[in-house]
Amino acid sequence: MIPWITGRSAQTEDFARYEFKYLLNLEQRKIIEEEISHFMEFDGHVHKELEDSYFVRSLYFDTEDAVNYYEKIDGVGARRKFRIRTYSQEYEDGLPIYLELKGRQIERTFKQRIAIEKEHLPLLTDPQRHYEFLEHFPGNWLAERFVFESQRKRLKPILLVDYIRRPYTSEFDLNFRITF
Known about the structure:
three-stranded antiparallel sheet; six-stranded antiparallel sheet; 23% helix; 9 strands; alpha+beta
């Protein structure tokens, strides 16, 4: 069981994995991509028009003092943060949007998420409306945790991060993944 979960819901998806991140120059990336292409393939979400990549957008919540940011910079072994994640710059019908709780417990990374609708975004980004969000997810531990922590820590949407991801999955182990 994931350390900070106190209840489960059919609406919530759980992920756990080990993540290792490295800075590579372009030449190193090309060499590694050439090697892994022999036993890995692009995951099913890539777009040919983005050169076998896809767009990722995350809106991170943090405190006025950037506690989540400094916990990451300081290498705190047990930490967590909330974000809203989607896969386009503009909202499109049918495009998934998620409220996610991402955390780290020593070297293992955990993520729990619930799918939300575009109409839920103002309820999440305005602290005065967080309790209205619960009406859409009655009994969901992740929605309750977001409202509790956002009120207790005065979380606000602080940082918007956009990037292009080029993901590979292993033909032999579905849990092994490499992204650039």
